[in-house]
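Standup notes
- HV: blocked on the assembly model, inputs below
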Amino acid sequence: MQDEEIIYEDGEHKCIIFSFDNEENEESFLAVNQYLIIQNSSAILIDPGSLSSYDELYDRVSKHIEIEKLKYIFYSHQDPDVAGSIGKWSVSCGARQIVSKQWMRFMSHYGLMNYNRVFPLEDKGAKISFGKEYLQFIPAHFLHSAANFSLYDSRSKILFSGDIGASITKEYGANTQGLKFEDMKETLLNFHQRYMAGNKFCKAWVKKVREHDVQTIAPQHGSLLSGIDCQKFLSWFEELECGGDLIDRYY
Ligand SMILES: [Fe+2]
Ligand SMILES: [Fe+2]
């Protein structure tokens, strides 16, 4: 099943969430959110996901903008639920594929052959202009992937945070807006304690994020966190013990 919702719109600039789950394989399929930002005639697609969601996402995106007008496709990290379809997207449109330079050598295993249109991100990230505003790629390394970025859209003030802020629930994306931080705390805790590498990285990321006026955190799984819930999440994540901080649990 697939759902979509406009999460920001001001007449010129629009952000859309697409959410996929699989009712037939509810237990084994991880529900994901994908995002599209459009400003006038250019667009960026964020974390398009696996091969199995490619056809449906392609149709959904093309209802909003001609696929040829996609300027960029951004992959926050290398996981299959993020980048599994990179080979397909690289031949179906002329968009530049933005991915950490650390993952470039692995992408051929997803079927990516044409590296001419890949925009490799350096570890410190990058700022690119997008319409009248900018997009900032913020380092999120080891949270959870070893080379990982969040994306801040200066117009909508939404931070597309990849797996940070993700909660694994039966609900998915657009259906879960309106959940409060407190409602999500337990699922957030389970996910982040196990999948994030350690508090040092959480602190470094929150510090970078706070350089920007972030109003909403839009993760790759689960609900969006807006306003006060966004601030509560940042304060919680900044102090979270996870990964290596809990090493005795795992060894
Ligand atoms: Fe991931
Ligand atoms: Fe993920």
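- HV (later): unblocked. The chain has one domain: 2-250. The radius of gyration is 17 Å.
- Next: hand off to the docking folks.
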